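User: Working on a comparison across species. This one is Vacuolar protein sorting-associated protein 52 homolog from Rotaria sordida. Can you predict its structure so I can line it up against the others?
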Amino acid sequence: MATEEPFHTDNTDLGDLESEQLYLEAANILQKLQLDKPVDEEWSLDDMEAHIEENLQDQFVQEALTQDIDLAQYSEQIQEKLQIHEKAFVQDFIGETNNIANLHIQISSCDKILESMDHMLRNFQNNLANISNEIRHLQQYSAELNIKKKNRELVRGQLSQVVDEMVVPQSMIQIIMDVPVTERQFLEQLHELSHKIKFVKEQSFHDAIACQDVQEVLEKLRIKVIVFFFFILSLIF
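Assistant: Here's the predicted structure for Vacuolar protein sorting-associated protein 52 homolog from Rotaria sordida:
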């Protein structure tokens, strides 16, 4: 069986480690702790040397070595301190149980509030979308009304002109019926009557129903004028 050679390192890496006994004690501690190794694996010499090299760089280990402290005892002290701190931590955790429970309740309450706010924001977003659609619909409807208004104004203008051309005012009837044919007013109304008769005749070809309301009046006035002229001619000749 091959003999194991003592582990040698420089003074910087090993500090004040001067004896093989300290080395063997450190190896024994690492063997017991089995650091970073599965339970079913054994430590090799190379593994121990590597971990010794690594752990010797630790400040607390260097202090322990320089003070000629028993590493096994020092390791047990560290384990006891760790257990004490672990128990203290557990006690602190148990003592803060109520606070932790209250914190959990507050977090749950905050989650519910956030969920409610999210629901409200989604509803608000949906309402905004509906309002946007309604505004778009109103804009479209307003544009349609504007077009209808312009069309009505255009038709109203044309109808107003047609009505003015077709309507027989009472003043025209009175002048034609009562004023002598030699008067200027009569001649002016006679000219206007001729224009209206011509216009109504043109519109009658387009099946304008309104023409039927004035044709009878215009025809009577036309006959009246013809009778007047025949009467005048009979007096002259």
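For your comparison, note: The first helix runs from residue 11 to 14.

User: Helpful, thanks.
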